[in-house]
Amino acid sequence: MDYGQDANPSALLRLVKEHRKLGLSSAKAALLLLAAFLVASFLFTGVGNARSLRNFAQQAPNVISFLTRSAFESPEITWAQVTSTITEKLQQKIQTRLEKARRYHESLSNSIHLQNPTTPRLLFLQGSGGRLGNFLFCTASLIGIARRNQYTPIYLINDERTTLFTGLNIEILNRTDALRLTRQTTLPEISEKGAAIYSDYIADFPLQHGNQSVILSGFLQSFKYFHAFRDEIRTALTFTEAILTQAVQSINDSLNALHGENNGAMYRRVPRLVGIHVRRGDITAADDLKNFGFLGATIHYVMNTIRLVRRLHRNSGTVFLVVTDDVDYCLNVLQLRTFKDVAVVSSKDNPPAVDLAVLSLTETVIMTVGTFGWWGGYLSESEEVYYYRKWPKKKSRLAKLVERRDYFLPTWHGWV
Ligand SMILES: *[C@@H]1O[C@H](CO)[C@@H](O)[C@H](O)[C@H]1NC(C)=O
Ligand SMILES: *[C@@H]1O[C@H](CO)[C@@H](O)[C@H](O)[C@H]1NC(C)=O
Ligand SMILES: *[C@@H]1O[C@H](CO)[C@@H](O)[C@H](O)[C@H]1NC(C)=O
């Protein structure tokens, strides 16, 4: 079946890793690495020329430099210029997204056939417990499964989170109206086998239910329910202008805050924006959740992926924007403020939607665990997304509810 997967330029990474595992001679491995970095620089920055080769040759692979200077480089720019360039680009990006989302929202207003005298084929979503990430999975799956079967998606819930998105245009009905419109005496309910396990009987529900209108329930956390419609999903889930504007301001503020550190230094290029989501909270604190199989990513994972991404994009440079539900942990345990290229964006005042919008504006996403980070990766449209490979805990009850191939996009990178 075609789930419409994206192309995968960073398969390279895996190649390098695998050859390391195979234990090639160091000379061969070095050659492979050299080739991989050349191609990677070509793919990631479009600069597959002698400059990359020189840079590679000048720097041992493990020496990370946010600021690589070279006599061959373009004119240098200040940190203030870097910040304003990034902010301006992001403002253009959000305007483009908003225009598309508004057009999409409009187009749906004309195509809702609820008042149509013939029996409509409606697919209802009954609820979406949990927080923003859960809501997004339920909504995306509702739209994806409805499109796939030419049904109209409908909410049976009045969830205030629907107002966070410019593109979202799904009618809300109560049960009485739902029954009246469908002319059915009952609304069959479709339940899932696990929170993150894809099932054909859900995706192709009309086969079992004789084209009736039905209610979807559960967590529906598989990209396979909606990835074939990814452009529509991402357009529908474009945040409101107010949220996106606040996200850009947060990024601007965070970059300005790095200014003290970076003042006086000069830069060759505008660095790549990398979003990191550090999920802590209940899953790392509550015993019942830990016993169930939830866990947080390790300190090693966060540091390891930061180093990896810095190294991969050493030509452009990188700046890391951290969003988290535990600022203290990021500052005091991970000590992220000690790096001059890492800014902690989250504050107690940032609503979760703004933090998620920040992630959606970055070019590479490092998630730890959890659906919030998952959606940061998905909405960013990045082809470079990292996740903590040891989640969920092996042999736990949670592990039985998660099929990793259904949950993580095959183009994303599991890391430890
Ligand atoms: C259902 O919604 C309709 C239209 O919005 C309203 O008239 C009706 O009173 C509602 N019924 C219930 C049971 O809430
Ligand atoms: C359901 O609809 C499809 C096409 O819309 C049709 O081919 C099929 O016969 C219908 N099945 C039933 C049981 O009505
Ligand atoms: C970004 O920060 C700079 C420096 O404080 C400020 O002049 C500029 O107006 C800010 N831009 C936005 C969009 O907030």
UniProtKB/TrEMBL annotation:
<keyword id="KW-0812">Transmembrane</keyword>
<keyword id="KW-0325">Glycoprotein</keyword>
<dbReference type="Pfam" id="PF01531">
    <property type="entry name" value="Glyco_transf_11"/>
</dbReference>
<comment type="similarity">
    <text>Belongs to the glycosyltransferase 11 family.</text>
</comment>
<keyword id="KW-0333">Golgi apparatus</keyword>
<comment type="pathway">
    <text>Protein modification; protein glycosylation.</text>
</comment>
<feature type="transmembrane region" description="Helical">
    <location>
        <begin position="29"/>
        <end position="48"/>
    </location>
</feature>
<keyword id="KW-0472">Membrane</keyword>
<keyword id="KW-0328">Glycosyltransferase</keyword>
<protein>
    <recommendedName>
        <fullName>L-Fucosyltransferase</fullName>
        <ecNumber>2.4.1.-</ecNumber>
    </recommendedName>
</protein>
<dbReference type="GO" id="GO:0008107">
    <property type="term" value="F:galactoside 2-alpha-L-fucosyltransferase activity"/>
</dbReference>
<dbReference type="GO" id="GO:0032580">
    <property type="term" value="C:Golgi cisterna membrane"/>
</dbReference>
<keyword id="KW-0808">Transferase</keyword>
<dbReference type="GO" id="GO:0005975">
    <property type="term" value="P:carbohydrate metabolic process"/>
</dbReference>
<dbReference type="InterPro" id="IPR002516">
    <property type="entry name" value="Glyco_trans_11"/>
</dbReference>
<keyword id="KW-1133">Transmembrane helix</keyword>
<keyword id="KW-0735">Signal-anchor</keyword>
